[in-house]
Amino acid sequence: MTKSIKETLVSGKLARLIPVVADSKKEERATASLLASFMVVPAFASDVLSDLGASMGKRTVVEGYTEVCFKAADKTKNCRPDGLIIVTSGSKIWTALIEAKTGNAIHTKEQVETYLDLARAHGINAVITLSNQYAITPRHHPIVLAKQKTKHVDVFHYSWLSLISKAVLITDNKKVEDPEQAYILSELVRYYRHESSGVTHFTRMDGAWKNVCTAILQNAPLSKSSSDVTAAIVSWQQLLKYLALDLSMKIGQPVALHLSRTQANELELKFQEDCDSLVQQHCLSAALDIPNAAAKLTIHADFVRRTLNFSMKLDAPKDRTRATASVNWFTRQLKGKKNIEDLVLRANWPRRRPDTAAPLVDLFEKPELLVPEGASDTPSSFEITRVVDLMSRFKGAQTFVEDASHNITAFYHDVGQHLSRWVAKAPKIKEKAAEQPTIPTIMSGVTEISEIEDSPSPESVEQTKRSFLGRMLNV
To answer: Are 280 and 142 members of one domain?
Structure first.
């Protein structure tokens, strides 16, 4: 433990992989096992902590402590963080306080801000909160905190499921070569997945979700500053993060919520955009980035129609001259696949021509159904869509989550994993229609001419060559 931090501690215990604490202290057990895993599985620690600003390398040393208590005489004297992380990389030292919640317990604004004060008082770089709440990214904290509190200390949030997801991806992709480390990581995942750990999945939307659905169906006015709208958006964004993590573990690759650069930098922008969309258009949309997939997977919730739409949009091939050939390029990718009867293919056309759409199964034999009359262009892009009518299940706090989770996985299984984006073929060397005569060939012809002359003089041969060469170059 670094001397500066050690001098400010009243107490602190080295984190244990199998902590000896009361069964009721689920938060302490979960935190201790996590920090101990960081210390013995460098790949896991690096994957989690490097995103937060810690400098990680081959010689990095990670230390984890639990039941820490700091010397303090101000309002932070009764603060007892669940853990402390110290990351040492050469002369660089990065530290963070850990505050964990399990089950349905959530952090409060006052509690997190008090830990931020404690961190600043002792020169600690960050505060990390852990709970069953979800955040779009670790920097998008589920609690709105005072800006002056985070001016000098960073604050991050991880859901327990996001940590499970990282551990699963590391083991599935064989990033841990040491068998003992791989075993420890697999045991951590097994423990977190057991109900006794206090780690739970996202299973319910907030009660405000039903209130918003009812208000929209009754044409009641909505305000983006109302508590029901903000609570519904919080649930929606937590659901999106859960769907991304769940799909990550199912495909063995990191799936992330798609954010623009501005949205990633401005933490409140995505939230405000979702509020505006819900209030003004009565719908919510988002997209998931899936590694090596042909396109983003978009999910669209329509509160009026009570439907969930899942879609992927691909650029049409640029090397087709007929529209039907372009349609066939797309439909061949899904021909013969199962569970595609409810899919609709939409074509986007250039020159402000209206979009066209038709059932995918009809286009296998009649691609012309997607081509408008008189069209001479080829489509600019294709969008494949599945519309799921949830009816009354749309406003159910639990049923909406169940249906969203099941159907996004089904859509990627039935459609997304089979699609490939169009890639231009490599250019080929052009074959010349008629080879132009080369200089050696020309001179050969001149030589032949000179040979049939009767004892030509050297001056006559040279003059003939120049004359013949001049005529050939002027052609």
So the answer is: no
The secondary structure of residue 107, as a DSSP letter, is -
Do residues 455 and 409 both lie within one domain?
no
**Are 119 and 256 in a shared domain?**
no
Looking at residue 449, its pLDDT comes to: 45
Same domain, 265 and 155: no
Please, are residues 99 and 112 in contact by the beta-carbon 8 Å criterion?
A: yes
- CA 30 to CA 161: how far, in whole Å? 12
Say how far apart CA 194 and CA 200 lie, in whole Å: 9
Placement of tokens 């002056």 in the chain: 148
Q: Which residues contact 362 (CB under 8 A, 6 or more apart)?
A: 369
Tens of pLDDT, residue by residue over 14-29, are 999 988 887 788 999 9
Looking at the structure of the chain, the number of domains it has is: 3
Residue 391 is predicted with a pLDDT of 96
The answer to whether the beta carbons of residues 446 and 284 sit under 8 Å apart is no
Q: Which portions of the chain are predicted below pLDDT 70?
A: 1-3, 6, 72-78, 433-475
According to DSSP, the β-strands at 307-315 and 297-302 are antiparallel
For the chain, the first-to-last Cα distance in angstroms comes to: 88
Containing structural domain, residue 225: 208-316+380-418
Q: For tokens 């009026």, what's the residue?
A: 304
| Six-digit token string for 11 | 């107490």
Same domain, 132 and 51: yes
Same-domain status, 125 and 257: no
Per-residue model confidence (pLDDT) at position 75: 61
Query: How confident is the model at residue 475, as a pLDDT?
Result: 46
pLDDT at residue 91 in the model: 87
Max distance between CA atoms of the chain, in angstroms, equals: 121
DSSP string, 310-336: EEEEEEPPSS-SSHHHHHHHHHTTTTT
- Tell me the residue ranges of DSSP E strands in 152-248: 154-159
Same-domain status, 299 and 446: no
108 CB-near residues (< 8 Å, 6+ apart)? 143
Q: Which of 165, 197, 229 is the last residue of a domain?
A: 197
The per-residue DSSP string of 346-387 comes to EEE-STTPPPEEEEHHHHTT-GGGGSPTT--S--SEEEEEEE
81 and 223 co-located in one domain: no
Token pair belonging to 325: 């050939």
What is the spatial distance between Cα 291 and Cα 256, in angstroms, rounded to a whole number?
9
Contact 133, 157 (CB under 8 A): yes
**pTM for this predicted structure:** 0.83
Give one word for 282, left, alpha or beta, with left for phi > 0 and alpha for psi -120 to 50: left
